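Exercise 7. Predict the structure of Cytochrome C and Quinol oxidase polypeptide I from Fodinibius sediminis.
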Amino acid sequence: MQILATPVLAITLALVAMERILGIGIFDPALGGDPVLYQHFFWFYSHPAVYIMIVPGFGIVSEIVTTFSKKHIFGYWAIALSSLAIAFISFLLWGHHMFVSGQAPLASVIFSFLTFLVGVPTGIKMFNWAATMYKGSIDLKSPLFYVFGFFFLFLVGGLTGIVLGTIPLNVHLYDTYYVVAHFHFTMVGGMLMAFLGGLHYWWPKMTGKMFNEMQAKIASIIIFIGFNVTFLPQFAMGMLGMPRRYYNYIEEFRGFHQLSTIGAYVLGIGLFLVMYYLIKSLFSGERAPANPWKSRGLEWQISSPAPPHNFEHIPVVVHGPYDYHKPMDGFQLGLSKWGDGQSKETAGIER
Ligand SMILES: [Cu+2]
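Solution. The predicted structure, encoded as C-alpha cells:
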C-alpha cells in the first residue's frame, strides 16, 4: 500500500513545485489548472494512508486476541484475505472525500457503494476476533484491555464511516466536527489502541523488563474514558453544525467544547501514566521471563530480551503460532528438536 500510494503524494508535491516555480498550470485555475485535480491526487494517497496505519493494528489485535484467549485464531484465512481485500478496496474509495467537491453524481454513487463495501472485510475481521474469544480461556491482561478499547472505538469509527459514506448525510456532515470525531475514532481506536496493546504485549520481549500490570490496566481505562469524553461530544456538535478548523464558535457549542477539553486532559494523564510506568520498568522492573503471556508464537520461545541473533540455530517448528488446542509440552518439545543436536540452552529456549 505504501509503495502504491505514497509516491502519488510525492508526485503531487512535485507538480505543485512545477506550478509555483515554472508557472505551469496544473492546479491553479488562473494558469488554466484544475483545483479539484489536487483533491483527487491528495485523497488517492490519503485514503490508503489511513489504512496503512490501521492494517498493522489489525495484525497486532489478531496476535493479542489469540494469546489472551488461548485459542486458535478463528477463520485464519478469512482474517488474512480480508486484510488483502481492505488493502485493495482502499485504493477505490478516495472519491468519498469529494462528494461536495463538484464531482459527477454517478462517481459519487459508485464511491459511496465502494465505501460500504469496505465494511464487509472489516466486519469479517471483527466477527472472527469475537469468535476467537468465544468460549476461550480469557486472560484479562493489560494488552487485552487495549484490544477491548480497540473493539469499541474502532467499531464506532467504522460505523460512523458508513454514515459519512452515505451521500445525503455526508453533504450535511462534511467539514464538521462529526468528521473530526470519526477520524479520531478510527485512528486512535484502530491505530493507537492497537499500538498501545502491541507495545504492552511485546514490551517484556523488547526490553526484558515487566511493567506494573495494575498501573497498565488503570492507564488503559483512563485513556478509554478520556478519549470518549473528548470525542463523543464532537459527534453531537458536528451534527448540530459546528464546522471543523474554526477557532471561534457560538455560545451553544460551549458545553461540548469544554467537555472535549476536559476529556483531552484526562486522555493526556492516561498517556503520561503509560510513559511513567514503562520508563520506570526499565530501571526497576522485574526481569521478564521468556514467555510471560504463555503465547505459542515463535518469538516467545526465546529469552527476553531477544538475543542478538534470535535463534542460534534454526528451530524445528512442528506447531503453528496459534495452536493453543495442542498441548504446550508437545509444542516446546517440537521446538527443542534441533537438527544438529544442539542443547536447548544455546538456542535460548526456557522451559
Ligand atoms: Cu477515505
